[in-house]
Amino acid sequence: MIELLPLLVSAFVLGLLGGGHCLGMCGGLMGALTMAIPPAQRGRRLRLLIAYNLGRILSYACAGILIGLAGWAIASGPAATAMRVIAALLLIAMGLYLAGWWSGLTRIEALGRGLWRHIQPAASRLMPVSSVPRALLLGALWGWLPCGLVYSTLLWSASQGDAWQSGLLMLAFGLGTWPVLLATGLAAERLTALLRKRQVRLAGGVLVILFGLWTLPGPHQQWLMGHGSAAASHQGH
């Protein structure tokens, strides 16, 4: 679990600081969802927005488990090291995206457009949202909206070679996106302005890049493991 913690932090930071991209993809929906709530339901706006985001986050976690099964099948073979390298490179690429140095990850959004064409009509029929179950279902469907950042995180989570770890990473990623989208739905501009600041995005991007470099197989990991074991042995004496 200790080894998983840096990965969970990376996933959360990706979601939190990737909120600018999420606003472009889902911000319009959040505004439409808020405006579409019938006048009689305005007092339940927060509850409906939470239900929508919960459905979206759960869809990320389910996708993580499903793709993690495929990753487990590959990682069980001789390709395990290659998958670890892919995981590290994806982390570095996502760090570069967060810092604003490279946005090539958005090109993979085309992968999910065919699937979304079949899902979008069902999502549209749920508007306007008038109940918590309806908001929950709409969020679960909208979680499959083509998004380069989500797809990249999915591929990275699958490279861990464990379905449950993949699901947990996607859950952490989804929780990271929650503050920005929820604040957008509630017209809370201070939080979104803070997360869009250049210094904050640079710090988050560099942090994720460092996690990616740490994930790369190599002598540095052996040194870290040996250093940690030596420290534990010293404390034991």
TrEMBL record:
Q: Name one Pfam family in it.
A: DsbD_2
> What keywords tag this UniProt record?
Membrane, Transmembrane, Transmembrane helix
Report whether Cytoplasm shows up as a keyword of the record.
no
InterPro entries in UniProt: UreH-like_TM_dom
Q: Where is the Urease accessory protein UreH-like transmembrane domain?
A: 11-214
Spans traversing the lipid bilayer: 12-37, 57-75, 81-103, 135-156, 168-188, 200-217
In terms of PANTHER family, this protein maps to: HEAVY METAL TRANSPORTER, HEAVY METAL TRANSPORTER-RELATED
Recorded protein name is Cytochrome biogenesis protein
Q: Which organism is it from?
A: Stutzerimonas balearica DSM 6083
Lineage of the organism: Bacteria, Pseudomonadati, Pseudomonadota, Gammaproteobacteria, Pseudomonadales
